[in-house]
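Task: sequence design from structure.
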């Protein structure tokens, strides 16, 4: 899946993808969703790297974290430790779905480490379909319509993707953690804390997102003081996968406006 767009590395047992030059430009940190992977960002990574930014995406320990730490704060703490290990003193923190929820909390707790924030389909207000609801049965006919909620176009829900989901939810240790994470997300609304996010923020939302619907996006927009919201039509919960061209264009424009172009920063 990686192709030649990024290199997988490891630091202190943490696997992560990295691409782009080690320039003076503010680097980019990507956080995937609850059942996501580094591959969710495979269309964004080369575009950002080619624009001259360093971009880093850790494999979040959703299935391996100690059970007592399987909540939002446990992953926020993991992200803080990871950024120290790879030298991201300040970054453009970007998250989708559960990763967006983590990114928002990270921006509140460590404002000095967040140059800008990008959220897409972020949880933290409410979700229509929690991940725990898919844990009950592992046949494709039951799972397919539930997984299809992630996308506007169901063509993205392949048998391979369904096999991956089944592999996860039939693994008891993984399933226990996912259910614990899902319950934590359900309880951890950040609606009343959004004003604490001081970083300039970009919200990119699918107009047909059924998991974190459009009113979730407008709630983020109204709550975060310095924020802008852009809609992508005919698009569901994962715009960076379903509409990568539009997503990348919005993302790169925001980067150049808020943290500057690597080319301009490398001159002189």
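Answer:
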């Amino acid at each position: 899946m990686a192709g030649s767009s990024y290199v997988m590395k490891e630091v202190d047992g943490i696997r992560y993808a990295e691409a782009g030059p080690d320039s003076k430009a503010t680097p980019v940190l990507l956080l995937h969703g609850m059942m996501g992977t580094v591959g969710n960002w495979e269309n964004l990574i080369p575009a950002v790297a080619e624009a001259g930014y360093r971009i880093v995406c850790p494999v979040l320990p959703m299935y391996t974290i100690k059970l007592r730490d399987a909540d939002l704060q446990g992953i926020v703490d993991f992200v803080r430790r990871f950024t120290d290990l790879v030298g991201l003193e300040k970054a453009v923190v970007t998250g989708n779905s559960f990763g967006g929820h983590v990114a928002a909390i990270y921006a509140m707790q460590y404002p000095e480490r967040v140059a800008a924030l990008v959220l897409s389909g972020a949880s933290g207000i409410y979700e229509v379909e929690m991940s725990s609801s898919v844990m009950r049965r592992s046949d494709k006919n039951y799972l397919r319509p539930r997984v299809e909620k992630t996308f506007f176009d169901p063509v993205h829900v392949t048998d391979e993707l369904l096999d991956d989901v089944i592999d996860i939810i039939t693994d008891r240790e993984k399933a226990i953690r996912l259910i614990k994470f899902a319950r934590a997300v359900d309880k951890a609304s950040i609606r009343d804390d959004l004003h604490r996010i001081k970083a300039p923020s970009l919200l990119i939302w699918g107009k047909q997102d059924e998991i974190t619907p459009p009113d979730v996006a407008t709630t983020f927009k109204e709550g975060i003081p310095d924020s802008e919201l852009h809609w992508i039509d005919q698009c569901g919960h994962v715009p960076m996968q379903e509409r990568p061209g539009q997503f990348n264009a919005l993302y790169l424009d925001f980067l150049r406006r808020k943290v500057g172009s690597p080319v301009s920063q490398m001159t002189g």
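The beta strands are 7-11, 14-19, 28-31, 55-58, 91-96, 114-120, 201-206, 227-232.
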